[in-house]
Description:
Layout: H1 2-34, H2 37-63, H3 78-107, H4 116-143, H5 147-174, H6 180-207, H7 214-225, E1 232-241, E2 244-253, H8 259-276, E3 280-289
Parallel strand pairs: 2-3
Antiparallel strand pairs: 1-2
Amino acid sequence: MEMNREIELKKITLAGVFLNVLLIVLKFLAGFLSGSQVIIADGVHSLSDFISDAFVLIGIKISSKPPDETHNYGHYKFENLFTILVGFILIIAALLLSYRAINSIITKEYISHENLWTAFIIALFSIVSKEYIFKKTITIGRKHNSEMIIANAWHHRSDSLSSIAAAIGIFGSMVKIKIADPIGTMVVSAIILKTGITLVIKNTNFLMDVSIDKTSFESIIKSIKSIPEVIEYHNLKARYIGPYIYCELHILVDPNLTVRKAHEISHKVKDEIMKNVENVKDVQIHIEPYSKDKQFIL
């Protein structure tokens, strides 16, 4: 299971690498020939995509390592760490591109109108190809519940959106609206900036052991209540470690049960949770004797 997961994540990431290398070459070449800032900005976005792919490949390698003496819960959180690095790369790229666009508007140094058809066609190719790789990547990411791959998919989508803005800016320059190019660059930068900030905030929360989503949490509660031998429960906690959910809780059972029987009940609870809730890696259960003097709200 873990091996198949690693192979599929690597394959889709490498597909993104090859596409990004092609787009980087085409966009920078078109920018050099036409002088278009917006296609160069779009090329920088593709370059950041390529760098993020490299981080993702490293992240896949490290996060797929099994638990060891110093990392008892595995290395899954490296996915979140590397995703945060991708986010910061996007933020820096967006700020640099915005600065250049604003400076162009202030100084009124606009592009010439040569070879813009080439830049326009490349922008259209980028839109189509990036949307295709986005759909493939997010499907694999959701299949394996990988925040890192899902984030990389949205990185592809943001590149597709930025190429739309680039195409509009280039077309504006083609019809002699000179300011369209730097404005298009600023729109691209805003898209990149938003994506970067979202990735940093979301994955920082994961590193801080944010609670799992409400639907999964309610499914865990339903699973616990389905075991008739569990009289009550409390101290239910669940968090993400990389793509997986780790859960812990206390259950209250008949105090007259044998240790063996209470242990069997705890396994029934664990099995029920892992059967009904996706991506649960482990469930830690503490058994307590039920007492009418000490009750908990279900």
